[in-house]
């Protein structure tokens, strides 16, 4: 080991020690005396500003932990993160404390989630603590994002992505998706965008993909979620399953049906039934499957995406009618009959015309409707283009 | 917590304001004493005068208890406005609208300053929301006309906008409705810690809530965020027929199935039809765009006539 290597190694070790000492998940918190008044006074005698505040709040958080009081524990941790923010602000041209920030911010968010889950007091609104937590993390984020004078090695901008990931997790949880956009923009314009660690990039792309899905930008969603799925560690099948929950419906909308073996492997058979119904253009069954697995789809937040699959099902059904009749002027009445054969009885000619009009408008059928003759006139060439080829 | 202010003014208008407005000749014609109608400075009728909306400004003390009306007075003010003013036929609706709009705004302001408790606030906001939805529909034809005139002559259009501003009406509606939804969510949370004597109150609350939630779904037809909220509503609300129907309509619009939207809307009760019709211009535009590129037919024309809308008063608002 060269001297330089040794120094780097030693520095890393020291930072690790600081991180551990300020973590609420390290072994030292189980020492019962550590949160006592005397211990705190003693510790304060040996520390000077600005570190003293940070340690004081950390010890108080431990004291609250011993009293089993998550709310005050959260409050102390929040104060600790705030004093850390001040310290970071003061440290110019150095970023060695970023690992400390990462750990403390992660623990702050976990605590906020814990407080939300055990919420007992009536005068606290749902999501209130998580929102406060987001504000606190934003303080850190601002310090990191503004540090653009330091050199690449020393800049605190390396800390941006972990914070963004924490914030994205919170915003998705409290359903404030519009707040994600500025964060995503900050990362997309960062010069280090491609250089962050893989784990961070995967988390980030997972949320960006989901955001794009809610904005109905399925191509972008597909791109990000596919990256996430392909790069996710192969042994973390729980995460892979979670990614697939969003990736599968997005892929289906774009015209790619998943293999049964894949769905079986990740225990996502809800999609299997869904896919069968969509493939066959069986609207009745599609509605039944959606009803049957309603709570799963709603819980995963994909019910609205799944609803869109109805359009694909209509397209597939009408294509089957075309293949059976093998003519290019299809009576609307025949399309209606196909729906009625499945037991759908609340549809009339006007509505079928409307559905067809939408399909033509979206480029899923090439043709036009002759309202006078009640016919769908389709193109001689490729009247039902492959979904994956539609721009 | 800071101490709450409780108003002590038991009339619809504080004496001081009535006095000043009488002296300055600022009384609305709905507020004057009929016997002094022709006089140069008509007298105010204390039973008819209602506190105006005024912005908080430097020097004005918004928290003077004598100038604030307690919740019960606010509620009866709303009732008076809807049963005695809204039903009048002797003046143009625009004058009625302006009057009620302004006085309701001051009701909301009084409620906000006193931080009236959630259940009461809900009772105050619900009729305000109904009024704004109803008005938007009552001006619908006027709005269509404006669009048409605008292309020919801008000056005419300006006059129309000064009479009824759709945007401002929409903004107030959105503000009141989101406030209401937040209040519902919060009261939802207290559900577990419920005392028995409040059960009855809760029951009627839920009834109105179904209407308001349906209203929200219809106003934001096909909107992802609104639909997401709807899917997460408590089960007992979700099974209410109005909400069910509204969900169907919203989902139909989500898939741009305008035919289904139009065939389902008439099944709604009148107020909800009004809500659904606020977005009808957008629906018509989209439907027409789709139809023109694929086929062409006439599009169903649907709205209430003014007479019909008038006959709904005041039940639709109360």
TrEMBL record, chain A:
Q: Look up the record and give one Gene Ontology term from the biological process aspect.
A: poly(A)+ mRNA export from nucleus
One molecular function GO term is: double-stranded DNA binding
SMART domains tied to this protein: PAM (SM00753)
| GO CC annotation terms, alphabetical | transcription export complex 2
What positions does the domain PCI occupy? 202-383
Origin species = Melipona quadrifasciata
The record's section on Gene3D superfamilies has:
Winged helix-like DNA-binding domain superfamily/Winged helix DNA-binding domain
Q: Which domain of life is it from?
A: Eukaryota
Protein name in UniProt: PCI domain-containing protein 2 homolog
InterPro entries on file: Csn12-like, PCI_dom, WH-like_DNA-bd_sf
Q: Which family does it belong to?
A: Belongs to the CSN12 family.
Q: Which PROSITE patterns match?
A: PCI (PS50250)
From TrEMBL, chain B:
GO cellular component assignments: centrosome; nucleus; spindle
Tree of life domain: Eukaryota
Annotated SAC3/GANP/THP3 conserved domain ranges read 12-294
Q: Its Gene Ontology biological processes?
A: centrosome duplication; spindle assembly
This chain belongs to the protein called 80 kDa MCM3-associated protein
What is the source species? Melipona quadrifasciata
């Amino acid at each position: 080991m060269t001297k330089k290597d040794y120094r780097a190694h030693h520095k890393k070790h020291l930072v690790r020690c600081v991180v551990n000492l300020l973590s609420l998940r390290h072994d030292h918190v189980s020492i019962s005396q550590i949160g006592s008044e005397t211990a705190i006074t003693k510790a304060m005698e040996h520390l000077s500003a600005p570190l003293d505040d940070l340690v004081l709040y950390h010890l108080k958080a431990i004291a609250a932990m011993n009293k089993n009081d998550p709310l005050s524990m959260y409050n102390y941790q929040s104060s600790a993160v705030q004093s850390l923010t001040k310290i970071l602000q003061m440290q110019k041209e150095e970023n060695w404390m970023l690992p400390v920030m990462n750990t403390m911010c992660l623990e702050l968010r976990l605590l906020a989630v814990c407080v939300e889950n055990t919420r007992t007091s009536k005068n606290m609104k749902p999501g209130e603590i998580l929102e406060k937590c987001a504000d606190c993390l934003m303080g850190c984020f601002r310090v990191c994002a503004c540090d653009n004078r330091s050199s690449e090695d020393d800049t605190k901008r390396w800390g941006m992505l972990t914070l963004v990931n924490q914030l994205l997790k919170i915003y998705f949880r409290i359903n404030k998706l519009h707040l994600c956009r500025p964060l995503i923009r900050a990362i997309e314009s960062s010069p280090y965008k491609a250089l962050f660690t893989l784990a961070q990039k995967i988390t980030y792309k997972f949320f960006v993909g989901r955001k794009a899905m809610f904005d109905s930008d399925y191509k972008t969603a597909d791109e990000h979620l596919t990256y996430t799925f392909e790069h996710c560690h192969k042994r973390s099948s729980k995460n892979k399953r979670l990614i697939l929950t969003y990736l599968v419906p997005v892929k289906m909308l774009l015209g790619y049906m998943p293999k049964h073996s894949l769905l079986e492997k990740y225990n996502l058979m809800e999609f299997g039934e869904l896919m069968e119904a969509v493939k066959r253009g069986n609207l009745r069954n599609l509605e039944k499957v959606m009803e049957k697995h309603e709570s799963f789809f709603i819980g995963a937040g994909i019910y609205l995406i799944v609803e869109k699959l109805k359009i694909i099902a209509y397209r597939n059904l009408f294509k089957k009618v075309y293949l059976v009749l093998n003519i290019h002027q299809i009576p609307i009445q025949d399309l209606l009959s196909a729906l009625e054969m499945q037991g759908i009885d609340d549809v009339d000619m006007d509505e079928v015309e409307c559905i067809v009009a939408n399909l033509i408008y979206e480029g899923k059928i090439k043709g036009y409707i002759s309202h006078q003759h009640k016919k769908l006139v389709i193109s001689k060439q490729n009247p039902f283009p492959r979904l994956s080829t539609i721009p | 917590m800071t101490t709450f202010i409780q108003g002590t003014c038991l009339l619809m208008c504080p004496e001081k304001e009535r006095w000043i407005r009488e002296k300055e000749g600022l009384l609305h014609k709905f507020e004057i004493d009929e016997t002094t109608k022709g006089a140069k400075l008509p007298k105010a009728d204390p039973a008819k005068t209602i506190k105006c909306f005024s912005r908080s400004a430097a020097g004005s003390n918004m928290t003077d208890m004598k100038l604030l009306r307690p919740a019960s007075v606010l509620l009866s003010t709303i009732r008076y406005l809807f049963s005695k003013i809204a039903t009048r036929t002797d003046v143009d609706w625009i004058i009625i609208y302006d009057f009620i709009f302004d006085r309701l705004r001051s009701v909301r302001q009084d409620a906000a300053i006193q931080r009236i408790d959630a259940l009461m606030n809900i009772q105050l906001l619900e009729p305000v929301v109904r009024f704004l939805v109803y008005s938007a529909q009552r001006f619908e034809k006027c709005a269509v006309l404006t669009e048409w005139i605008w292309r020919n002559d801008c000056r005419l259009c300006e006059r129309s906008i000064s009479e009824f501003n759709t945007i401002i009406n929409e903004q107030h509606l959105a503000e009141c409705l989101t406030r209401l939804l937040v209040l519902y969510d919060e009261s939802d949370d207290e559900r577990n810690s419920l005392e028995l004597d409040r059960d009855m109150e809760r029951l009627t609350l839920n009834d109105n809530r179904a209407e308001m939630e349906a209203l929200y779904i219809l106003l934001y037809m096909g909107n992802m965020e609104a639909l997401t909220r709807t899917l997460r509503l408590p089960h007992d609300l979700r099974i209410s027929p109005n909400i069910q129907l509204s969900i169907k309509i919203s989902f139909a619009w989500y898939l741009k199935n305008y035919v289904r939207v139009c065939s389902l809307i008439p099944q709604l009760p009148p107020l909800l039809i009004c809500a659904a019709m606020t977005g009808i211009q957008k629906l018509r535009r989209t439907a027409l765009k789709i139809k023109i590129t694929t086929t062409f037919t006439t599009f169903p024309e649907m709205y209430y006539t003014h007479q019909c809308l008038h006959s709904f008063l005041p039940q639709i608002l109360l």
